[in-house]
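INFO  loader      accepted 1 record
INFO  loader      residues=413
INFO  predictor   begin
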Amino acid sequence: MLSTAILLLLAGLALVAGCSKPAQGGGPGQYPPPDVTTTTVEQKDVPVFGDWVANLDGYTNAQIQPQVTGYLIRQDYKEGSQVSKGQILYEIDPRPFQAALDQAKGQLAQAKANLQLAQINVKRDSPLAEARAIARSQLDNDLQTQAADEASVKAQEAAVESAELNLGWTKVRSLLDGIAGIATTQVGALVKNDTVLTTVSQVQPIKVYFAISEQEYLALSEKARQGGAADLLHSSSRVPIELTLSNGNVYPSKGYIVFVDRQVNPSTGTIRVAAAFPNPQSLLRPGQYGKVRAQTELQRGALIVPQRAVTQLQGSYQVAVVSADNKVHIQPVQVGPQIGTDWIITSGLKPGEQVVIEGNGKLVDGIPVHPHPATPEQTNAGTNPDQSGAGPGGGGNAGKDDGSKPSAGSEGK
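INFO  predictor   done
INFO  writer      dumping tokens
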């Protein structure tokens, strides 16, 4: 019985020893190098663009207000329609103003009659006074009466002109070509000089306002001067502005800068700029929002890598570089502006180096890898959807399962 127990114990020890051999002999050397996809660090001249949130407004906005007090009796335009300069939009009851005009014309006729009588008296008494048939003072009185009647006629003519203007102002007209807005006052209401009836906005062209930083303003101004322009206002063909609408569509026509504010806002550090865009179909309307884009500079000899090659760790950026002996080196880098799906690297890389764009989420410094050059489709592919919320650079491929085998840095866990 004792011998049987000894045999069973020896068999168990042998079984344990046999199961532990793979673990004792395991290690990095037993796993093949992980497969990674690499691309070459490219050096080229890259245009750098600025993007800003913008809001649209009429090129000119005119508040339509009456110039006389009275009751509205008619609205002659359709809200939201295109109107022309001088077109009648509203009518105010003209009867009181017509009566005032008639009265002024009657007073003018009376003043002209008095003047005519004074002229007759002067004509008659002038030779008599010369012949000393009448006193000289009588002729002086006639001349004074004539002068007073002439002044009275001029005053009544001005009163008639004023009454005609008031009567004409009972027809409220558009001050410019544009689109008329919603009526803010209804027919039958008593309106005064400070009553806003509606607003007409000129939308061809239309203005787009946006705020840029002081540094961006200086960059745009420098680009304008390089193009031969004195300032931004004279560089319409050299600094085109691109507008993206709220639905993501790019507006087909380019705009140009027509206004730069006189000062930088001290609270925000930005300066307000306005660009004008052609709007022949009146598609763009005041109050819309969008994004504008303009080239601020041209970086010559910039180093470009796909955003997928860059990973972020605690506010710093790094790239996995594959050396000539197919080993990985985790290289800290400094990043510049993002250009589409690429990133400008300002320091840390050299032209021609191979960087990992797929599989870099599982790599540690110094491990061997099996690199595969990326196809053009892989190089130009956008950011992985799994990386969209991973911060700058998309967080590499940390969340991606590319089917490669565990690397030496992930083994033994």
